């Protein structure tokens, strides 16, 4: 755990430690989301929902005592020694996306595991087997999915699955595929399949989260496939439903003032919706706003820019920061 907390300081910025804790346990306020985005820790949003603040504080204290970070007035910063220690190990979770998949990741993966078993037995016309899932929701969703599928669903499902796994890194693909069960093969548990390097927490959880997110990202790229259709209802629950309504109104041509009146919401709430939408969607319509020109500023200057110093609305200021940071 101690080394993981250290990795969160890798970008070299000064981090507000209280906000860092809120990020790890999954607090989804716009201030937490922006802090995570600006300091390159947003993928870890809610990655450790059960982390106790006392434990987090003890880990910070260990890092301070080892002179790996400095903490002043609630802000932590990596030391030269901390940089040296981080340089010895690599823990890349480049597929991790808790903002996008964190709410329903586990449910979506359970649905995939169950669907593989069902399709496997259907392909052999085998009806007598013990399903790995017996919760009503999953049973109903699989039945509904099959009822609305075309006759070649078995072939298409297998083709889509093969294509997805071909696009995944080998280690993550093996880790996920070996969890599948079907006719004459029994899947292993995630823990049984973890590489030795990742056996301890929080690495074991992060490794699985990252692998599943890589898989789900491939599924979402093909929004016409059978697997996408199977997961679409669950995936909608990954997203802030109120934010989606605001998004729909805006894309339909409504101004922000009109959205405020139609939805009877406060300006701050609508601001939060647009900020979350911008962070979660690479196709966010930034060009619909008169963005501030931050081209002459480096990343650190953009992060530390103050809203009060610009003749702009708070929302436009934040969207400008997000847009320019992505460009950098």
From TrEMBL:
Residues 242-305 form the Helicase Helix-turn-helix domain. Pfam families: HTH_40 (PF14493). This is Helicase Helix-turn-helix domain-containing protein. It comes from Enterococcus raffinosus ATCC 49464.
């Amino acid at each position: 755990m101690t080394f993981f907390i250290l990795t969160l300081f890798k970008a070299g910025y000064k981090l507000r430690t209280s906000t860092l804790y809120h990020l790890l346990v999954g607090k989804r306020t716009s201030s937490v989301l922006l802090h995570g985005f600006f300091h390159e820790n947003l993928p870890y949003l809610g990655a450790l929902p059960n982390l106790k603040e006392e434990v987090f504080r003890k880990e910070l204290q260990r890092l301070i005592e080892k002179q790996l970070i400095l903490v002043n007035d609630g802000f932590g910063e990596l030391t030269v020694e901390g940089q040296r220690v981080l340089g010895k190990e690599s823990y890349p979770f480049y597929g991790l996306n808790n903002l996008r998949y964190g709410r329903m990741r586990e449910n979506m993966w359970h649905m995939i595991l169950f669907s593989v078993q069902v399709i496997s037995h259907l392909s052999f016309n085998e009806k007598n087997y013990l399903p790995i899932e017996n919760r009503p929701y999953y049973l109903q969703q699989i039945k509904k999915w099959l009822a609305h599928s075309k006759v070649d669903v078995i072939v298409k499902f297998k083709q889509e699955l093969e294509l997805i796994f071909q696009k995944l890194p080998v280690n993550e693909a093996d880790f996920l595929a070996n969890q599948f069960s079907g006719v004459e093969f029994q899947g292993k548990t995630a823990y049984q399949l973890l590489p030795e390097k990742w056996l301890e927490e929080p690495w074991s959880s992060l490794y699985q989260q990252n692998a599943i997110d890589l898989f789900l990202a491939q599924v979402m790229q093909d929004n016409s496939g059978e697997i996408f259709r199977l997961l679409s209802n669950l995936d909608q629950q990954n997203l802030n439903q109120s934010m989606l309504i605001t998004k729909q109104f805006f894309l339909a041509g409504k101004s922000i003032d009109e959205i405020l009146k139609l939805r009877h919401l406060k300006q701050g709430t609508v601001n939060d919706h647009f900020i979350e939408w911008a962070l979660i969607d690479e196709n966010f319509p930034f060009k619909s706003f008169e963005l501030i020109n931050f081209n002459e500023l480096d990343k650190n200057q953009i992060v530390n820019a103050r809203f009060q110093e610009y003749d702009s609305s708070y929302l436009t200021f934040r969207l400008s920061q997000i847009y320019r940071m992505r460009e950098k």
